[in-house]
Design a protein that fits this description.
- The protein has 251 residues and is of the alpha/beta class.
- Helices cover 44% and strands 13% of the residues.
- The protein has one domain.
- The chain has a 5-stranded mixed sheet with strand order 3-2-1-4-5.
- Helix 1 packs across helix 8, helix 3 crosses helix 7 and helix 7 crosses helix 9.
- InterPro entries: HARBI1-like (IPR045249), HARBI1_animal (IPR026103), HARBI1_dom (IPR027806).
Amino acid sequence: MRLDKVTVSRVVKDTTAALCRRQNEFIKWPRSDVEKNKIKAGNFRIGGFPNVIGAIDGTHLRIQPPTTDEASYVNRKGYHSINVQAVCDADGKFTNINTSWPGNAHDAHIFRTSQVCTHMEKTPYWESGILLGDSGYPCRPFIMTPYARLANEDQTRFNRHHARTRCVIERTFGRWKRRFHVLHSEIRMKPERVCSIIKACAILHNIALWMNEPELPEDQEEEMPNIDAVYNGANDGRRIRDHITQMYFTH
């Protein structure tokens, strides 16, 4: 069956819109203690870090230069992109995703203005679980980042277990992009359409995991951590980070 480009474009647009309308059914933040405890246990098995309900990171998806507000889409590496922030669980399912920010937006700003941050600021930190982020995020009571300057072996162990546990989000981005080739090439649509396409691909990724769909071979480079961006603002989670280090990583 041969379809013209107009028909294909319309079908993709309609299907994407239908998926996005049902986002909350497929990309869900853990609410119950049972859900949270399952994720915490899974993350502990991965890297030995306690109480983690999610790993958070950003990834840049390349787009064609837009005709409006073009400069804001140029990221620090010099190409046009959407900066996608996502949180995943221990199985690599997305539990939250934000696809609305242009490439020059900083990860910390995206997080600070996100629903995830607002939610976690209102809940008891330890009981509700914590996120793991890289050095581009602030160290807050509910999001732990690695030590920038290591003072002792305990902090080294903290960073090692933090990295092992947090890398699930990098692997998830890699798996996601292998499933959907559109995500690792230049997306030639308007930013508004791109954001919807990205969100739909995240929904389909979760559905594929729930249905145990086979994955493509790992024929592309693994998502690399963001080692250049360092957050320099307030870090009111440092005492909790030190407490976690003393409780779990002091031998």
